[in-house]
Design a protein that fits this description.
This protein is mainly beta. It is 7% helix and 56% strand. Strand 25 and strand 26 form a beta hairpin. The longest helix is centred in the first third of the chain and has 17 residues.
Length: 807
Amino acid sequence: METRNCNHLYGGILVAFITNLKKMKKSFIVLLLCLTGISSNLLAQTFTMSGYVKDASNGEELIGATVYVEEIKSGTVSNSYGFYSLSLKQGKYHIKLAYLGYRPIDYVLDLTENISKNFQLTSDDKLLNDVDIFAEKKDQNIKSVEMSVNKLQMKNIMKIPALMGEVDVLRTIQMLPGVQTVGEGSVGFYVRGGGADQNLVLLDEATVYNASHLGGLFSVFNQDIVKDLDLYKGGIPSPFGGRLSSILDIRMKEGNKKRFNATGGIGLISSRLTLEGPIIKDKASFIISGRRTYADLFFPLLNDSVIKKSKAFFYDFNAKANYQINEKNRVFISGYFGRDLVQFGDAIRINYGNETLTTRFNHLFNPKLFSNLTFIYSVFDYGMGVPQGSQGFDWKSGIDDISFKNDYTWFPNTKNTIEFGGQITYHTFRPGAASPIGDESIFTGTYLPYSYAFEYGAFIENNHKITNKLTMRYGLRFSAFQNKGEYTDYIYDKSDEKNYVVTDSVIYKKGALFNANTAFEPRLSIKYELDNFSSIKLSYNRMVQYIHLTTNTMSTTPLDLWFPSSPNVEPEKADQIAIGYFRNFNDNEYELSVESYYKKMYNSIDYKDHAEVLLNKYLEGELRIGSSYSYGLEVLLKKQTGKFTGWLSYTFARVFREISEINDGKKYPANYDKPHDISLILSYDLNERLNLSLTWLYSTGAPRTMPTGRYEAGNMIIPIYSERNGVRLPDYHRMDLGLTYQFKKFKANGEPKKYQSNINLSIYNAYNRHNAYSIVFNQKENNWYTTESIKTYLFKIFPSITYNFHF
């Protein structure tokens, strides 16, 4: 339908409203079809070309590949499974397919009927060396309606200097604007004023509740298994929910469908190996990957008797398989299994880990309608104890999820892509059970009962290209949460703000559903192109979070426990609005983005002074509820092509909390409020084989509550503390260096070698900065009236070397 006909309907609706309500209803429906352009399919004969976009070398589906139609100056992108669909009027068209680091394809389409067409793109080594780590088409930042999103590829992240030789995707995320590190030596991160627990981390759609190894030194994501990664900081699409601040969506590789491959690396403290290949060529494939640290294997060789008995290691194991039943049906199964074990002699033993299992079934109902049915199982468990002696005990806790998800993608025409679906998750919270070990133990057993809950979500969203310059993505998510018995709800007297007192309780029987919470979560993103090289974007999203994390520390640790919303704990909510300007220079060689945001958070959780959060059945009485708000400015300048690539990011961000029972009701900064954050990442190809890289990071010191004075009472020195988070640690800054040498990739005749390898040398903290991890205050032993501050830091200068191979 043409625009003038749509305009005619506006007046028609007004007349219909006055004369006949039934006519108004009919006109209104036609108006909606006209606004989306869907009704044009009813007036002109259209046909559909659909299929998959794949990597020619291994058969992997390419996510986000562009399928562009020259004649209509529009097109589509492949979805999370590489599927695309184009509905066009009968005729001849010139189609162009493009994907980062791959040679584009030009295809002439004579469309006279529905056709299925798969495309295979060939990677271009030169392009891969030119484009740094951002997995986007060169002008995608201008053309796409998405903002506050970073898409990363693993192929070049390996050039960034690494801690202990372990390339880590989460450390790379920390270098992006709007993302701040938890602290030295940790892969935890904060996004736009949200807590570390307000980031939803997904691996093949399964929730990863603790994404770190060895207390945060490394993430659980093996670099050789990761295919695609998207970080959403704002303008979050409707299919995602459950957290307030960000979505980190990570997809595993599917396995080479053409030939057998092996990839791996040998480092100073860990090694890894990945195997992949076809089960049935071009129809089914597998990939398995393992990683383990081995520093503990040398402990028995040391002289210290305690270290001889100690252990400290982690391991990961990933596996995935897929099978194409026919052109319309495919199945996938993937899993992750990882564990940490730390034992200090006979003193203490800690072990924790994640397990995930994802099973997916893709079905193509017709060339325009794609569906995905998913079963998800996710577990995080934690154990700690003393293996023997009078203090012997064993403590276990964790959280389990079982989820079913069904989502659809409908491609009605080139101007609209509509997604809809739903999900249900059953949570089991295991807050803790502690028992004595051995007859000598003086420890008494403690058991906190499990709690259960259902979480629901349903969504619909349309990506609507209104004109060549104006695109909107609008959607609505409905979420709900129900607690399930058996459960004891404690009723508190809150008249004393410092200490809540239990006055009564309500017991819900086993299987009883209670305390239903529901919420509508609107999402909106708008993009307007000023010209071919610049655009402005606006986004709004409401997010709701129904499960929460107990933590009294700067970063998440395995000791932190998840707990559900309840009659005493309202769901956390957040409204965020963001606006941004995007500009490319010098034929898209340089990209500049400037974004500003404001976020208001409701039912924010903090803790009273000296809160007891472990093995406490009255945990909810330790919580204090209020509100938070954050605002900031993010600037990113990156260079994508040439021998010299990299990016510079600057973030100005503030986050404050207002809770009546804390800090005398006055606002105070959250313990991750760091106003200024700078990241500089540079990569230079000295020649075809040798690459030099550098990173420099700076951030304002984190706020803490510290002694600012003292007084004497009898023979005691009593410290006087600052307001909540009223003092800051020293500012943080660090430089890392990296050098990668690529061994010869080609034979004398120009053919690529089957065995390829490189060696990477990294220097972490190159100028030996002693960044403060913590500062404590003690009285001097020889002078009780003198107080001294003691700074703890984790790393001096730390070199490492890793050998990587592929065949």
